[in-house]
Specification:
CATH superfamily of the largest domain: NAD(P)-binding Rossmann-like Domain
Order of helices and strands: EHHHEHEEHEHEHEHEEEEEHHE
Pfam family, one: GFO_IDH_MocA
Protein name: Gfo/Idh/MocA-like oxidoreductase N-terminal domain-containing protein
InterPro entries: Gfo/Idh/MocA-like_OxRdtase_N, NAD(P)-bd_dom_sf
Number of strands: 13
Organism: Paenibacillus allorhizoplanae
Amino acid sequence: MQPLRIAVLGMVDGNGHPYSWSAMFNNYDKETMAECPYPAIPGYLAKEPEDKIQIPGANVTHIWTDNPADAIHVAKAARIPNVVSRPEDVIGHVDAVLITTDKGYEHVERCRPFVEAGLPIFVDKPLVDNETDLKQFQRWVRDGARIMSSSCMRYCKEFMPYRTSIHSLGQLRFSSITTCKSWERYGIHAVESIYPILGPGFISAQNTGTKERNIVLFKHRTHGDVAAIAIDDMYGSHGILQLYGTSGSATVTMQDTYHAFKSQLEAFVSYLRTGERPFPFSETEELMRMVIAGIRSREENGRVVLLEEIAAD
């Protein structure tokens, strides 16, 4: 099969995914990548064997970023042959697009031209951060648009054993997961870390924190209480999962960022090839309700928000 042609579109403050994701498809120029403004990216890329860097069967062929200078540098670092002046310029030249920005309130408008063009889209987390935009994505998917979105934490290899089974822990009574940065942009990392372990069935959210210090307590229909914590400057404690059961407990820390990102992108490529979603869109819908409920509860002085309040379209 011919390699899939993919466009990388968008770059916002605090998010270097155009560098890292493009390198995972195209390999990279080490000298230029060393100048990446996010030092963690060349750091974890350098740990990978040369023959394991690339995702087979797809290449990033086009790039556009909000600041044109960023696109030029990413293109050089990740060997992308085409820099375009408008995101819509990639239509007709690629097989799919990656929206590589993590501000949920922007995603409807960033995606709209490509939905209308019938192109498959991967949207960086979170898909949305408000109810109106969630309804729009629900309509698009219902009408046949090929849209996928996830946190890389869904693919965290350190958490995989507990996705397979939590039987040894007995019945879960309490779980927690941590992240740095804001709830609006990184809360999805927390909740999507734990969602594949517990499964659907989240009932309510209560955020007792502040905009800089989000402490969100969820109720799960089967697995009790779940605390998802997002604190702005807690960089040393991102991705710590704790599971407490009647027969045992577990504490696990996410370590391999590269593996999580690459596995996420491989899942999208598989979706492009087969047409089969790696997980139902209904899971993304529930996760977005969790993100929105955490925001709503904080803005309403810690009110318990039922997820069913956040209506489906």
